[in-house]
Amino acid sequence: MLAQEGLKQIGSVAKQSGLPIKTIRYYDELGLLKTFGRTEGNYRLFNSDVFVRLRFIKRAQSLGLSLLEIKEFLEVHDRGDLPCDRIKVKLEDKLEEIEQQIQQLQILKQELKGLLSGWKTIPEHPEETICPIIEQVPSYSVSGTLTQSIPFFSTNDA
Amino acid sequence: MLAQEGLKQIGSVAKQSGLPIKTIRYYDELGLLKTFGRTEGNYRLFNSDVFVRLRFIKRAQSLGLSLLEIKEFLEVHDRGDLPCDRIKVKLEDKLEEIEQQIQQLQILKQELKGLLSGWKTIPEHPEETICPIIEQVPSYSVSGTLTQSIPFFSTNDA
DNA sequence: CTTGACCCTCTAGCTAACTGGAAGGTTTAG
DNA sequence: CTAAACCTTCCAGTTAGCTAGAGGGTCAAG
Q1: Where does residue B101 rank: exposed (0-12), middle (13-18), buried (19+ CB within 10 A)?
Q2: CA of A129 to nearest chain B CA: how many angstroms apart?
Q3: Chain B, 63-102: which have a CB under 8 Å from a chain A CB?
Q4: Which residues neighbour A38 within 8 Å (Cβ) at sequence distance 6 or greater?
């Protein structure tokens, strides 16, 4: 029997939200959810806030934030603040990250295109290379300030 | 004492290549390296082919191929073929993958930019949202055939 | 009273590419 | 002979976000 009105067990939260039960339990374990206590039978109880929280989590996740980052925001929120300003800063960082990722991928793409456009099944060199073309050093001057080349060997001695 | 001329122990391979010993051992375990036997003391011996192989591995990795994919190529190579044609197909697939990744990231970027440009530290709504802005449904019509929206809740019942 | 749906915790596994450490064998210089 | 530097295998842990399964408790209906 449910302890109070309007409280839900994990199963119906799962159904309404479309998320697997296991996932909801997992979020709860990580401290993302703040359950509304338990029944006498030790069943988790949620009030309808949980849907707002879940939607927030999923939305933030889809924007590239990790569960731990999201947890921080939720904690700020739970202390009474709107975490908007912090979120803004994070999102600005994310934006920069994403722009860099895109740049890296563009470089890669250019490289791959270059390799593929110059492709021929090269005949000679039986032993000294594995695949001659793929081993070419990239010589791109794509567009702009890209001096950083893709590493062949990193420089750590261990 | 080294069994033969020109053979290297793992330490000097590590030094010359710049890769950690552990990594080289790991590649060997995965079957990427084909050692040149062992000493009486059970030390791995490499001939200088190993540098070609390592360079190939690192290069292919930097092009977005996994170690398992790379292993396939090396096995083809070791059976006597130049694995170029297979590599070509893989690389074409990779190219497509990368283009899709870029597209996804562009969408994300647009979204983030949209959020950040419309940003104000919104005052009201104490409880029904966590951060009002981040919870907006994205309404982008970026450029072209993007019907797929970022999922809030997926559609699996479990 | 029993069945079935629901819930609990706990442990372990998944992917990928390593990395760290324990415990111990080998080789060489002094 | 001993110490240092090198090597070996094996086991476990890292990251992130779950997911699977075992083993068992709770609850309402028939």
Answers
A1: middle
A2: 7
A3: 63-64, 73-74, 77, 82-85, 87-88, 91-92, 94-95, 98-99, 101-102
A4: A44, A45
User: How many angstroms separate the Cα of A66 from the Cα of each of A63, A129, A147, B126?
Assistant: 9, 42, 30, 24
Provide the pLDDT confidence category of residue A118 given band limits of 50, 70 and 90: low
Count of other CB atoms within 10 angstroms of residue A47: 15
DSSP string, A6-20: T-B-HHHHHHHHT--
Å between CA of B42 and C1' of C26: 9
| Residue A92 CB contacts under 8 Å (≥ 6 apart), including other chains | B116
pLDDT, tens only, B80-117: 666 667 777 877 887 887 788 788 778 777 777 776 77
Closest CA to A116 of B83, B66, B58, B84: B84
- Taking the C-alpha atoms of residue B42 and residue B128, their distance in angstroms, rounded to an integer, is 67
For residue A89, give the H/E element and its range.
Answer: helix A84-117
List C-alpha distances in Å: A53 to A27, A35, A39, B111.
Answer: 10, 11, 21, 20
Residue B115 is classified by DSSP as H
Torsion of CA A103, A109, A111, A116, to 10 degrees: -170
B129 touches chain A (CB under 8 A): yes
Kindly tell me if the per-residue pLDDT of A142 is higher than 80: no
